[in-house]
Design a protein that fits this description.
This protein is mainly α. It is built from eight helices and no strands. Helix 1 packs across helix 2, helix 4 crosses helix 5 and helix 7 packs antiparallel against helix 8.
Amino acid sequence: MITVILLAFALYALAGQQITERVQAWYASANKPRVDGKHFAAFALLVAAAIAFMPSKLAPQPVPVPVPPDAFTLRGRFIGPSAASDAATMSALCAELAECIEYDGSHDQRLKTGVAFDDLRVAAREMRCRGESIGARQPQVRDSVHKFLDDAVGSSGGPVTPESRAAWVSALRDLARAAADVTK
């Protein structure tokens, strides 16, 4: 935006007299009021101000939520040439699983047990990763995620309560955030 304003001022400084004469000649032939350099500059500033304060500029920009210092992290755990893509894939997969489990809880609740959650996770990983295992390539990540999930949601494969479903959704979102943080 500032570049446009500076270019307009530079153009006016270089060819201002010629521009003013042409604009004045055109206005004179159209029986319009006489326009001088001050009018042209004022008009340019009004246009620039209107562009600067368009409604899209007034919309508040989202502020990222700060990550607590004690939050789960996977930094330094993804290693090797596929580390960045593995982290991005894991982040997307965990975020989508969280969405699916949350959605299922608010609708027909097909996923009723911890075993069903794990079956969904395995099926999603196999489909997305075409059978390859990120955990096999990234054993430090696998071990950290295993411990984190055991601590966050336990290891029960039994019936799911609304509280345990919420814990799964929260844990998967934490995993998605931690994996996404690695790629930043």
